[in-house]
Amino acid sequence: MSGQNPSLPVEAPAPRHTVRASQVEMTELVLPNDTNLLGNLLGGRLMHWMDIAMGIAASRHSGLVCVTASVDRIDFHNPIKLGQVVVLQASVNRVFRSSMEVGVKVFGEDTQTGRRLHTNSAYMTFVGLSDEGVPTPSPQVIPETDEQSRRFEQALERRQKRMG
Question: What is the DSSP code (8-state) at residue 30?
């Protein structure tokens, strides 16, 4: 026996360098230790979770250990409350030799109603490193949908602004 649960469908993996192959959906429960005095999720805790989800997406794409090189602006549109679930959806938008832009969308979910509210979006730049810690080129990401193609093109515009 292979240890797999025969009742669960086996999903074919996406081609390695598609946006779909890098996608991460991470969930976290907001506990008292994660909140401020108003019962809202701490911004620093959310940024920590964003960094983890986005770093996993970068590593899935490149097959390398990836480190955060820069963070674009993060706006907090709506609070996420104690007891809510945080849903983070991250994927690689574009690769620029050894660096890559990763995007994340964050939702606060009320588990009683199932209602999800978009609270944050952000972009971070990650760099893939070799075993020796040297920045290492990654293959370009392959967009498969119109939305992914739009994000791919906009990533170049954002990079040009970042580079000044």
Answer: -
Whether the CB-CB separation of 148 and 136 falls below 8 Å is answered with no
Find the DSSP H helices in the chain: 19-22, 43-62, 146-163
Q: Are 34 and 41 in contact (CB under 8 A)?
A: yes
Residue 132: exposure state from Cβ atoms within 10 A (0-12, 13-18, ≥19):
exposed
Domains and CATH numbers, the chain: 19-163 (3.10.129.10)
Walk along the chain (164 residues) in steps of 10 and give the mean pLDDT of each run.
58 78 97 98 98 98 96 92 98 96 98 96 97 96 96 96 88
Residues, the chain, total? 164
Note the pTM of the prediction, 2 decimals.
Answer: 0.89
d(CA 122, CA 93): 12
Given the structure tokens 């954002």, which residue do they identify? 158
Tally Cβ neighbours within 10 Å of residue 111.
Answer: 10
Name the helix (H) or strand (E) containing 4.
Answer: none
Q: Count Cβ neighbours within 10 Å for each residue of 50-79 and write b for 16 or more, e otherwise.
A: bbebbbbbbbbbbebbbbeeeeeebeeeeb
